[in-house]
């Protein structure tokens, strides 16, 4: 579909073109950019409302700063569509998040304007501080380093670590732009949010502060003697007003704002001023998530990443099916935890800022006192869960597989070493799809199975997910002095009639899906359904492989593996996780440790970065879709085994 940019936007290919535009035309540039984002995302999909909220900021930043020499570091990066469109990627923007196309996030190898690769939140301040120190080291004292971070991302420990360091580096040219829209994906939470609202609404504080900073800001451009006076006034002010009442000032970050992040003319003036004030500083901008598109302003969570929609009516496209569809795994989790919690009063749920994404919002609604959104704080989520477990609560801590990477030490140090029976539910395990490598849940089997006092399981369908959740909360299981991991993928399962009575599962017990000859296929989790299809394909060709679902990667079902290696000298292992250290590796370890020899073909995610695309496209690329599994079996069946 041909989508044409507006009159001014069409001639802006890179920021140098933008910087030639008359300042009084900038509102028009912003309007056209906003419209272009609406046009494109409605037809091609992607993250939406975050980019709409920073349109004016994006234009003003590229107008005032000398990008790409000055470094713009977008936090998370889901709001950087305007930035991409203004930095040479308008013509290819229709390939955003598509297999083989551009990434939905800033990416260093994609553009010199993407100063830092991103996808996970709260890295921007640390990265910008590092860049500033690097620039100083290289004698590039004039270079500016700007971190644009949302109020949600500001809740993470890493953002505080970055500010703590920045405040101690008087020479670091770092400007933090706090894009405060009171939203993460769901409404933002926590004391910091309350604080930001307080300083935004306190009139007295703002009047005094504005006068002071206007004076200081202006004076600091006048050279050394004026700077000394500024420093003196600053010190006096710190005791008197700012450090007491302003959190950022207390960290030695000069705080400016709050200002209207949609008033582009004012933004340009303020940024021009700040450019001339050296050292670490923060500009607090107030914006509206979804700005300029009424439905998105109204229902901000729904429009974070809405899928395709009719931009005129605001109706989001829904897939229509001619048969009952299986539910998403996340919804099975969300409903099941409520069902279990109704019977077991010890059960609580935790999510670090993903209530909608994990479906813990179902419990938050039904049992608000027993379900916690702790903000973007994976490390805290894990240790907070550990703390509750010491008091005998049964904790389901739900974290996307790739975000759990942040909290690895907490899993080891605070949970497993202390033998606390926290139940980790790792959603989005395997390929995340269009979000790409930052979000792929590729490593969890490998990083969880090497920790002592950890059980690692993965359900092949909805019923198994329910039964694993059920089993792990039972009193006798909680007493085992081990933590539990249940990993499951993004998207739907396979059972439309998923709500079946709970059954206790034996820990470390897999199941044989089918008997067979010549080759055995071993799978873990949902991907086992691909093996079922592969067997159907192969059957038509006269091949009859056996299929075993391990269900547990740790502990392994040793009896089942003895059966496999006694019966078969050709084995295919299939997992939607990294090959190195994954389930296939565990099977090989078992084989060697027990003196078996067999030809083993391991299918899974190879030791390279797999980019974005639909999950099935990426699985095909890596050779573990149904056809890939069938091919591996064919090849093994035809090969000579010399053992
Ligand atoms: C470490 C990590 N945890 C969780 C997420 C998922 N996530 C993506 S955007 C987002 C909310 C970000 O809120 P904010 O920074 O305020 O940006 P806004 O969308 O409001 O502009 C969350 C929780 C992530 N990307 N990284
Ligand atoms: C930017 C980010 O990290 C989230 O918005 C993520 O894209 C959500 O992914 P899901 O759609 O799988 O919840
Ligand atoms: Mg926000």
From TrEMBL:
Binding site for thiamine diphosphate: 78, 119-121, 152-153, 181, 293, 378
Lineage: Bacteria, Pseudomonadati, Bacteroidota, Cytophagia, Cytophagales
HAMAP family per the UniProt record, alphabetical: DXP_synth
Name of one Pfam family that matches: Transketolase_C
Subunit structure comment from the entry: Homodimer.
Cofactor(s) demanded: Mg(2+); thiamine diphosphate
Job description of the protein: Catalyzes the acyloin condensation reaction between C atoms 2 and 3 of pyruvate and glyceraldehyde 3-phosphate to yield 1-deoxy-D-xylulose-5-phosphate (DXP).
SMART domains associated with the record: Transket_pyr (SM00861)
Metabolic or biological pathway, per its Swiss-Prot or TrEMBL entry: Metabolic intermediate biosynthesis; 1-deoxy-D-xylulose 5-phosphate biosynthesis; 1-deoxy-D-xylulose 5-phosphate from D-glyceraldehyde 3-phosphate and pyruvate: step 1/1
Known EC number: 2.2.1.7
Cofactor binding remark: Binds 1 Mg(2+) ion per subunit. Binds 1 thiamine pyrophosphate per subunit.
Name used for this protein in its record: 1-deoxy-D-xylulose-5-phosphate synthase
Ranges of residues in domain Transketolase-like pyrimidine-binding: 327-496
Catalytic activity: D-glyceraldehyde 3-phosphate + pyruvate + H(+) = 1-deoxy-D-xylulose 5-phosphate + CO2
Binding-site residues, Mg(2+): 151, 181
UniProt signal peptide: none
